[in-house]
Design goal:
Length: about 170
């Protein structure tokens, strides 16, 4: 995918623009396809770079959540890497969604947390809540890891735990 393409070009066609009667070959009318492409290009041109970036991040974050819920961790990691292919740095929400997608394997989740939040992103309370829930959901709960996470949350990032972290 080229860096110049924007997220609106990636979305599927709205149902209202789909041809109700495809040609006998099963394809939509060529004029309709051209109309849809033109409409998406115009929509993309109207968005600022910030809007396109925010839209791409939101779309990828939703995809990561969906893939994680389906247990497709590798695909979720690939989806986040797709942002880099577009020249977009992930944000805290996208990184947190990936940590949550990996929370069935807490070693992997912790590794991704450290990689994503170690250098260029700052975790928030939700990011820590995902880790804490993951460690608390193990049988037995990983109390030393929970304690270390809470300590890091307070000391390294200055975030005080609240009920949202429980």
């Amino acid at each position: 995918m080229q860096a110049g393409l924007s997220p609106p070009l990636l979305r599927p066609c709205p149902a209202a623009l789909r041809s109700p009667r495809p040609f006998s070959s099963g394809r939509a009318a060529p004029a309709l396809r051209q109309f849809v492409c033109r409409a998406r290009l115009e929509e993309a041109a109207e968005q600022s770079e910030e809007e396109r970036t925010a839209s791409a991040r939101a779309e990828v974050t939703r995809r990561i959540k969906t893939l994680g819920a389906a247990g497709r961790v590798r695909d979720a990691i690939t989806a986040l890497a797709g942002l880099a292919n577009l020249g977009i740095q992930p944000d805290t929400r996208a990184a947190t969604a990936l940590v949550q997608a990996c929370s069935r394997d807490m070693e992997l989740a912790q590794s991704i947390f450290e990689e994503m939040f170690g250098e260029f992103l700052v975790p928030d309370e939700v990011s820590f809540a995902v880790l804490l829930r993951g460690y608390g959901g193990l049988t037995p709960p990983a109390w030393p890891r929970i304690d270390a996470t809470l300590t890091s949350m307070r000391m390294k990032y200055g975030i005080e735990p609240t009920a949202a972290c429980a």
